[in-house]
Amino acid sequence: MSGCLTRETMRADIAAAIHTQPNEVGDDDNLMDLGLDSMRAMHLVLLWQERGLMLDFSELAEKVTLSGWWAIAERHLHPRREAAA
Fold first, then answer.
1. What is the distance between the terminal CA atoms of the chain, rounded to a whole angstrom?
2. Which CATH class name applies to 2-84?
3. At 26, which helix (H) or strand (E)?
4. What share of the chain is helix, strand, coil (3-state, %, to 5)?
5. Residue 38: C-alpha distances to residues 22, 32, 35, 44, 78 (Å)
6. What is the mean pLDDT of the segment spanning 27-42?
7. I want to staple 18 with a disulfide (CB 3.0 to 4.6 A). Which of 10, 35, 46, 53 is the partner?
8. What does residue 3 show for φ and ψ, rounded to 5 degrees?
């Protein structure tokens, strides 16, 4: 099911966690500045794990933008692509 995750579904999940609209979450916005705290971030990690995408919370904590999180997610979604690069 992790193959179903897209940047836009990630954006929508983040927006839902901070009670806003997806179009209010910019690619390079600091998610903490938008109201995402560590508890909500951990909830998102657990949500995505339930969908089959195993992300490391500490790795996400280093890059707190949608673009940063999506880059990390893509490495997990497409590990062969990274290995070939």
1. 25
2. mainly alpha
3. none
4. 65, 0, 35
5. 19, 9, 10, 10, 26
6. 97
7. 35
8. -65, -15
